[in-house]
Amino acid sequence: MSASTKPVKRVTTHILQAMKERGEKISMLTAYDFSMAGILDAAGIDVLLVGDSASNVMAGHETTLPITLDQMIYHASSVVRAVKRALVVVDLPFGSYQGNSKEALASTIRIMKESGAHAVKIEGGKEIEESVRRIISAGVPVMGHLGLTPQSIYKFGTYTVRAKEEAEARKLKEDALLLQELGCFAIVLEKIPAALGKEVSEMLHIPTIGIGAGPDVDGQVLVTHDMLGITKNFHPRFLRRYLELYDAIKEATEHYIKDVKEGDFPNEQEQY
Q: Cis link prior to 266 (omega < 30° from 0)?
């Protein structure tokens, strides 16, 4: 078995870089709990993102802003306990890093020490330069995030595609180069034109992970609840549903209720 096909015991930032260099796509999904993380890890996912999207899909908030650092650490700890192979990256939540690089480092240290995660993800470019610099200088791997940055939703006022105009596209490219220069090991590109995703991916030597950024980035990420069809009324163009679990779980639950009501469950084989 060659070195390139030898099974990976643990995905690291170094392995992700090697994957980009040999043209192997990187797979990434979100995870927030022990049970789901274990399934995704066993399937061979490369990166698990403990996303602040937990604010939406786990807690029912309209935006990612309400989730706290303590809650992110709880979710991350649950995921880390299940994982044997994947790289676990944790979002720094809103309010834990903006405008204060010392607080950014303190938040990161809490995540790393209390959850056992492998890296953090942070939204923004030039405006968070000092926070990224301080975190990386402390030895913590950082994944960047550009394009649509959900923590800035009230500034944008919409979840529509970003960087369609030349000025915003130019800033995104400048920010991507800056994050690479600062030492980020990868950058998520969210909801930008496919041509821009390709351009950014080709000009960077670090991996890019796209969500609604076209096919020519170095990897793809989706929210697991969206990909599995657990969420019902969310239909962005970039989403491919691989299952329709909402309907399947609802049907199974209805069947269980019927069996209980009719006295069919438990039967003779299901009792002591």
A: yes
Distances (CA, A) of 253 to 242, 243, 245, 270: 21, 17, 12, 18
> Do 60 and 32 belong together in one domain?
yes
Residue 5 banded pLDDT, cuts 50, 70, 90: low
Neighbours of 100 (CB within 10 A): 15
**Domain containing residue 20: CATH number:** 3.20.20.60
Determine whether 268 is an active site residue: no
Do 71 and 157 belong to one domain?
A: yes
pLDDT for 9: 87
pLDDT of 99 higher than 90: no
Domain carrying residue 263: 245-272
Amino acid sitting at position 78: S
């303190």: which residue's tokens? 106
* Catalytic residue of the set 114, 190, 251, 268: 190
Q: Is 222 a residue whose pLDDT tops 60?
A: yes
The backbone torsions φ and ψ at residue 145, rounded to the nearest 5 degrees and listed phi first, read: -155, 115
Closest CA to 213 of 198, 234, 227, 225: 198
User: Looking at the 3D structure of the chain, how many domains does it have?
Assistant: 2
Q: Identify the pLDDT of residue 143.
A: 98
